């Protein structure tokens, strides 16, 4: 019973089957990843941030099954609200709430840091236009006026502590 | 002593391949762009096929694909056991694909046909010798007559010319299936395809090439 998986379950690749080589070629030709996607994945290495804490997505109104059930139909007219959170070193959770609004190719982000306080906010996007950093005020509120739809992460820097980056997410 | 499955049912020895991957992961974590590029080149065909497997549009597939790499980037320092990278990539890619499917539509098991409609056939290259082009066209036609499940799984399992344990682990995680079940499924699907080809008298053309 233990070893029911033992044995040559998989024919040696291409060895004795004249079918495998041509079929493999056809499949590779049909399903090849676009060069631009592969290049972007390579370039994204430049987006890596070390010495940065990672704030995980803990809530997303677009994914909330209760919200979609209750508000079926009008979902798209409500601003999307996302929350990212990381446990701070002193047990104080560090979080950011982001409200997404706007239509077309650009979005406006309205942010709130927790705990409140001034910070510098950076916007990163793979392959996107560079977006200037913005400052959060003393209440921890900030606005990114226009950012292109697509993949994005926000990083906030506060004096005297590690920067915190949100997990990557998609602005629809 | 009981033999470990990881050794026992490997299609071929892959210790070297796994060491390679572990090494590249280590170098990438230390900031080596070339090692990162190698990882991207190594796993991109499989990851892309997985994104298409889930029925994502080209645009969504591109985002799920990119998100998978970005997740790896943000976890480069935290992946404890490099031998588990293939499984980690498969699981992550699966999650990103399902995440992008959810807001716009439900995942429906009957999406197979629509998916296959969307996946275009291979483009024939102009300088391909006529006989091979003709043989391939007939092979592709019969492949298209296979049931959707077989087509979908073969598209994942044959994407790599030397599909090894590493690719099987990645696909198994992406499909949330036991890795040991993939070999038998592949075998059954190939047998079905061979029957179709025999019935059409195409097998000989393959053998002669």
UniProtKB/TrEMBL annotation, chain A:
Amino acid composition bias (Low complexity), ranges on this chain: 12-22
Region feature Disordered, mapped onto this chain = 1-22
Q: What is this protein called?
A: Uncharacterized protein
The record lists the organism as Micromonospora gifhornensis
Starting at the broadest rank, the lineage of the source organism is:
Bacteria, Bacillati, Actinomycetota, Actinomycetes, Micromonosporales
